[in-house]
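User: Predict the structure for this protein chain, please.
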Amino acid sequence: MLSVVFLGAFIGAVPARAQSTEVTSSDRSFLVSLRQLNSWLVPVSKEVPSRTTDAAIGNAGRDIFEGHSRLDVDLRKTAQELGVIMQNDVSGEHQSLIDEMAERTGDNHDRAYATIVRQAQGGLLVMAVQTRATTQNTEIRTLSHQTVQTLIRTMTVLENTGKVDPSALELVTAKAQVNAVRVLGQNVEPSDRELLVLLTRHSLWQKPASRESSDRARDAKVRKVAGQLAAEHTQLTQAVTEAARQIGVDLPSEPTTEQKSWANAISSSSGAELDTMYANLSRAADGSLITQVAHSRATTKSLPARIASQTALTLLLKHMLLLEGTGLVKANSLQMTDVPAIAQSKSSSGPPPQEGGGPSTSVALLTGIVVLVVAGAGTLWLVRAVGHHGEHRR
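Assistant: Here is the predicted structure, written as structure tokens:
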């Protein structure tokens, strides 16, 4: 698990909403990965409604075709404005996939389509969320936000067809660490347990901090955003509690010591300092957590955990946008480092954070890139494997 720590030294940093024209290597990797996925997913999905007799698969194909076609238009526009050259031709590997899918029929086609698309989308979700949480380029932030929203919707539509093979959920990423939490059930994956614990502790500090900020903040916009976050953390808590009840996980009743210190820093502030402290700490907390939530959404085999992670992903994405909309979130709050920082947030004695993020950002972005590479390399293998699986069932 990536450690959830934040940068201090908010004063004097560049506002996150300010226009940034810099395209980092991680930003470029996201653009390239999205283009590569669209290059084969759009033409394959376009043919699905005419190649299947399954209404659910037909609707999924139509939805995915329309969603990724829109993303591709936005991607090309963004790349052109930023001066990033995108490859227009389909790679040989992906053309082989398109050709092979064209030869499949019936249930064999439907299961292969559902499985390879769901795996590829899960890999892209992790990368898109990481980009959304950390990029300082406003155009790429907008595109990654739209990508995550599209993936959240279309992944669910595809899963609801009942044709997705479990192999689609097995992405190559770092295994989650196991927290010391009592497990009541016998079949709880450590990653599902960890997700529910992390989300619970996140709400345990952010909900009261948001409620207090909705009363005490100087800026009316901050008060409104804080009030909305406090209310929606109630919704998140309900979703997590229900998932924990169903799969048998004993949830914590208090936030961590670090999280208490963040809440205390907000409580001990006032006026404009409170506004800035709340907006930046909350945005940093959401950004640090959302990548792990995305990983859970992409890989969990537990339906209750999937529902909880879907709710969390949707709300965290919304909260990040609301907090950035206050105009107070600084660029360094989009970075994640291994340096404990809350004590520095009210002191100017510490050195300012360095640009480009810390080790956690690099590791997480590298993980996302690996996911996409593995997904692309394994696509043809999955097609053949799912084909054999379908033939065996018949």
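The chain is about 70% helix and 0% strand.
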